Amino acid sequence: MHKGETVRYTISETFTPEGYYTMDDFYMDVTYNKNGVITEIVLEDGTKIYDSLGIHKSSNIPIKLVSVAPKYEELKPQSVTDLRFELINTPKFNTNITTKDQFYKEETIQGVTYTIQDITHNISATGNPTTNENGKIDTYVGTVYPSEKVKYKITQTNIANGYYAKDSDIEVEVEFDTLGYVTNYVVTKGNDNQSEIKIQTKDLKRPSLYPFSLIIS
After folding, report:
1. pLDDT the model gives residue 199
2. Cβ neighbours of residue 19 under 8 Å, at least 6 residues apart?
3. DSSP letter (8 states) at residue 114
4. Where is 40: in which H helix or E strand?
5. How many CA atoms lie within 13 A of 53 on its CB side?
6. Is 102 exposed, middle or buried, given 0-12, 13-18 or 19+ CB atoms closer than 10 A?
7. Which helix H or strand E contains 12, and what residues bound it?
């Protein structure tokens, strides 16, 4: 128990669930009164999330304070939990592209490289951009955006031997609902005679979306 002290605590995420970004480390300074009761909590960016007026929101650091131990006129019992808080992981927006032969539609193409960009927020994809032996790439482009329409651009930067490169970029506008789930999409560019673009719909109710399936000659 800390009485009449301000103590700095560092929070680090040691395991991140699949489909989420790892949270950056951060610290918070917790002030205790003479009875060992918390009177103030300040995050490393200067945000005060608890004081005499109660609990406040954090705008920059992904923490939500749930409860703080009540104030005691005498020494606080050891059995009382000082504080409870929730940490918020940011979901990844997953883009899984499959590249297939235009005429032999069951034949996938290995060695095709793409760049994918969220052009609404100017974010580029991370991950493996080159198709594997199954003709697939698996990349992440930023996060989901509740109640927004976001446009993504797909550019083919390298093509496998024996195939023509795609002449133009592909652009897809994706609409998210209030919870960040995909509710609709529109191919706004690139769905031409050279390639057939199919958007898989089985995962449209998941934040980790696998939306793009391409058939390229």
Report:
1. 54
2. 91, 92, 94, 207, 208
3. E
4. strand 38-43
5. 4
6. middle
7. none
Burial class of residue 101 (count of CB atoms within 10 Å of its CB; 0-12, 13-18, 19+): middle
Residue 192 sits at the vertex; the CA angle it makes with 97 and 137, to the nearest 5 degrees, is 10
pLDDT in tens, 20-74: 899 999 999 999 988 888 999 999 999 999 999 999 999 999 999 999 987 665 5
Each residue's pLDDT tens digit, 95-119: 888 888 878 878 889 999 999 999 9
Cα(56)–Cα(53) distance, integer angstroms: 9
Here the tokens at position 35 are 């009875």
Confidence of residue 208 (pLDDT cuts 50, 70, 90): very low
Q: How far is 101 from 85, CA to CA, in rounded Å?
A: 51
Q: Are 61 and 44 in contact (CB under 8 A)?
A: yes
DSSP annotation string for 173-189: EEEE-TTS-EEEEEEEE
